[in-house]
Amino acid sequence: MAMFHVHVESARKLPNQDWFGKIDPYCIVKCAHTGGILTQKTNRIKNGGPNVTWNETLHFDGVHVDGDVRLFIEVYDKDKLKADDLLGFAVVDLGPFVSKHPPHPPGSVPQLSYRGIRLKQYAHGPDTPAEVDLTVTMYVPLTGMPTRRLLSSTSLAEGTASIDDIMASYPTAP
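^ C2 domain-containing protein, sequence as received from the core. Prediction below:
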């Protein structure tokens, strides 16, 4: 098992879904792995507009790196009177990143920056001009070190959620 720190840096060219004023964007990151789905979110940037900087680090502890590991990045506009608007989403497959660093020696800290991840508005649809930047750091704890459980987890073993469930939750093109 490993811990991932996802530093959500910024987004550009987000679509404005508000009739009045600027959008209030926030980002949800879901880390899906063989042991479950871990979810964290950034703070919202009030009146942030289409180009925002979150500069926040989200922590995902207890990630099983022996199988499929993906990040689902979702950017929303916070609304007061109706459901929040999905501005875009992206899926980042961490498999190549994880497999690049075998056998995950204890104490290792591989890091990878993702710049200009293009967001989609619809599942299986084209990319939008909107982009998000983030950096992923993988920590493999030293043997015997306790790990901290920092976030909520939805278990795949319980059948309550899956990677396919996440993909099915995104809107399809009209």
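The first helix runs from residue 95 to 99.
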